[in-house]
Write a structure and sequence with these properties.
The structure is a single chain. With 309 residues, the chain is α/β, with parallel strands linked by helices. The protein is built from 12 helices and 12 strands. The chain has a 5-stranded mixed β-sheet with strand order 4-3-5-12-6, sandwiched between helices. The chain has a 3-stranded antiparallel β-sheet with strand order 10-7-11. It has a two-stranded antiparallel sheet with strand order 1-2.
Length: 309
């Protein structure tokens, strides 16, 4: 729909005549009449009816008035937002992350990132790794922070560090967890886990008496610290004080699992590259020095596994 014709239509509504609308728009009267007729042809309805020597709105014309105003307001808003982004010389950042990063690392990333880019607007969403990678590949996200076994394919990926997952339980309730070396042995403890995606198997055995399936890794951590059961957590989620309360099961995980920042194919340009470089630097710093973000040094385990969240 031609916004110029809509604007002339609203000028006619405001002034009550074609000649007055023409004077206001600095156009000739025949030019305005032609545009209004073309608007009727575009919509396939009659917007005007003749009364005496003038025109009045039909029912269709009256119904168009609020819709035309809304369309022009939205068009102007889009123009302002595009101009604002052009002036800032970079796009608003559409960032997706896995749940554990959103809850325990991202809060420490936002402030220094916004200090480096004061007018940056971040649009954040969380999802599982597979969904985030799909959105990045289709340019629905600019960046995603994901956990993956080896570098993800078909995207520009920066390895930020290892993604260490270990099974933890409250020491005073599950002291024998330290002897569990297989998933079968883990099944003898109450399991706390993220609800598996459709078609995927979880760790909870069918005959389990107690277990918890949650929607967030923060809930897993809370239930583990409360002594409800045993759950797997990335090392950056636990402070030194919390680790003292827990015992770890030496169950081997995927040693190739890492945390990656992946970028969309259309994320290009000098300023965009500067933003990408800054994000990689800040995230690597948070992973290498957990004391900076969580108030305690988190020693690294020697094994992990591919993250399902």
């Amino acid at each position: 729909m031609d916004f110029g014709r809509l604007e002339l239509f609203l000028r006619f509504v405001a002034t009550g005549s074609v000649s007055a609308a023409a004077r206001q728009a600095h156009l000739t009267q025949p030019a305005v009449s032609r545009n209004l007729h073309e608007l009727e042809s575009e919509l396939g309805v009659s917007l005007f009816a003749r009364r005496g020597r003038g025109l009045i709105l039909t029912a269709a014309g009256r119904s168009l008035v609020p819709r035309a105003r809304t369309l022009l307001e939205q068009s102007e808003q889009a123009r302002r937002e595009v101009a604002r982004c052009a002036q800032r010389d970079y796009f608003d950042l559409r960032l997706g992350t896995i749940d554990s990063v959103a809850a325990f690392l991202l809060p420490q990333l936002v402030v220094p990132l916004c200090d480096a880019f004061p007018e940056l607007a971040i649009k954040l969403s969380t999802a599982r790794t597979a969904t985030l990678l799909e959105r990045v590949r289709s340019n629905a996200l600019d960046f995603a922070i994901v956990s993956f076994s080896g570098a993800p394919s078909e995207v520009r990926a920066h390895r930020l560090g290892a993604y260490h997952l270990q099974f933890w339980g409250l020491k005073k309730r599950y002291p024998k967890l330290v002897n569990a070396r297989t998933q079968r042995q883990l099944a003898s403890f109450p399991i706390v886990e993220i609800e598996p995606p459709p078609g995927a198997e979880g760790l909870v055995p069918e005959a389990a008496l107690s277990y918890a399936k949650t929607s967030s890794v923060a809930s897993v951590k809370a239930l583990v610290l409360a002594g409800f059961g045993v759950g797997d957590l990335p090392d950056f989620m636990l402070t030194a004080a919390e680790r003292k309360q827990l015992v770890r099961a030496p169950v081997p995980h995927d040693p190739d699992c890492g945390l990656y920042l992946v970028a969309a194919p259309e994320w290009t340009g000098a300023t965009e590259q500067r933003l990408e470089t800054e994000m990689v630097k800040l995230l690597r710093k948070l992973l290498v020095n957990p004391i900076h973000c969580l108030g305690g040094f988190l020693p690294r385990s020697k094994a992990n596994r591919r993250h399902r969240r």
